[in-house]
Design a protein that fits this description.
By secondary structure, this protein is mainly alpha-helical. The chain has 8 helices and no strands.
Length: 187
């Protein structure tokens, strides 16, 4: 009974102290923007916590690699989320949506780097594709690598290079697999 009460207290504490993003459904642009800004702050704070946790767990060489990868990711995020000629209120919502998406993906990537578990969508996709006799896992990875190689986004290419270097060091992940999983989530 004591164990059940302890579990209940821990669950309630987590539920009451964790900030969660909300679904923004209003039709008023100002309210939608405020909601999206709040959601971005939530995912950005979560990313910051994961980043600082990984920094605390890392040695000097890994810290330097993490700092370098984070700098290239920030440049990639900022260039990717620019409105691209769009103007008006919708442009700011598009930008916030992009920032939220890329920040959540980076947060997932840092979790993967920290504990070696994650990126389940990519690995599930590979497993699903491999069940089809007409699809070879190597072909799927090859197509993703081809997309990366043909990318003209230098910020993206630099981020992938830095991140895969670190992933190789921390998790002994194959370079092609790293490039493939990052490209999978980009598209």
């Amino acid at each position: 009974m004591r164990f059940i009460i302890l579990i209940l207290v821990l669950v309630l504490k987590l539920a009451l102290t964790s900030a969660h993003a909300e679904v923004c459904t209003d039709t008023n642009i100002s309210i939608l923007k405020a909601c999206a800004e709040k959601n971005y702050r939530i995912v950005d704070e979560a990313l910051g916590k994961k980043y600082h946790q990984l920094m605390e767990e890392s040695d000097g060489g890994t810290k330097n690699a993490l700092i370098s990868a984070e700098k290239t990711w920030i440049k990639y995020k900022e260039s990717s989320c620019e409105p691209n000629g769009n103007a008006g209120a919708e442009a700011s919502l598009d930008k916030l949506g992009c920032l939220i998406k890329l920040t959540k993906l980076r947060s997932d990537e840092l979790s993967y780097l920290s504990i070696g578990i994650g990126m389940f969508g990519f690995f599930s996709h590979l497993a699903f594709e491999s069940e089809d006799d007409s699809v070879n896992r190597g072909i799927v990875i090859g197509k993703l690598i081809s997309k990366f190689v043909s990318s003209k986004d230098n910020y993206w290419r630099s981020y992938v290079a830095q991140n895969c270097k670190m992933t190789s060091t921390l998790l002994s992940e194959d370079q092609n697999m790293c490039v493939a999983h990052l490209t999978f989530y980009k598209n």
